[in-house]
Amino acid sequence: MNRPPVELPPVGTRVSLRYLRPPGSEPPMGDVVGHLEAAGTVVRVRSSDGVVHDCRHADVLYVRRLTDRPVKNSAIRAVEHAAALAWPGSEHQWLDGWLMRAGPGTALATNSAVPLDMFAHTSTIPAIIDWYARRDLAPTLAIPERLLRLPEDIPARLEIRTLVCELTAGSSTLETMPEQVTLTDRPGPDWPADDPVGPLTAGVDGELVCASIPGVAVGRGAVTEAPDGTRWLGVTA
Question: How far apart are CA 62 and CA 107, in angstroms?
């Protein structure tokens, strides 16, 4: 049975790629991590040691987009920890390295359990399910890539990409903002007011800023601290 070709990201993207090798090869499959240099009938990936790996597009079994440079698990965990503190829901509780969050609505950031401790384990999942069941909520796990391997029978709902960059003192100034933008430490009259002390205003040991223009809520920013002491600004439109 013919299968549709795997969709490839743009040329120049760093990828992890698995492909079928020619019949009779041992092992029958090859794996390569590197930058995609060609994505036509022939797929070409150049690995970090400069070796070029070619295969037919039809033989590509799997491809995953990677960051431009290797990222340590500890760095991923630090960002995810700060992000979770910025959106702890109306109610939250720690359990065996997991942060469980609950709140009104169905937003992933306010209704999910995220493994933030390096010793968090899937054995805690039954207790997590029970915690959400007692609140009449469907249990959802927010699993940062590479931090935990889930059992195969747990369905994946969606994938979210988190973009990060370093800010310096001169990256931006309030003087460059349009005059009509208002910054406040609480949601103003242009923000939803059905739950004034709900997830929108919640945070753990952080600072909140809300941006709006007349009649329109623009964005929410939360400054929280990772376990390594790095302070992160999380921006949500």
Answer: 30
Residues 129-158: pLDDT tens digits?
A: 999 999 999 999 999 888 888 877 777 777
Find the length of the chain: 237
| pLDDT higher than threshold 70 for residue 178 | no
Residue 73: phi and psi, rounded to 5, are -60, -35
Give 141's DSSP letter: B
Give the tokens for residue 172: 């931006």
The predicted pLDDT at position 172 comes to: 56
Q: DSSP for 210-232?
A: EEEETTEEEEEEEEEE-TTS-EE
- CB distance 209 to 221 below 8 Å: yes
Biggest CA pair distance of the chain: 68
* pLDDT for res 194: 53
Cα 120 from chain centre? 18
Q: Is 85 helix (H, G, I), strand (E, B) or coil?
A: helix
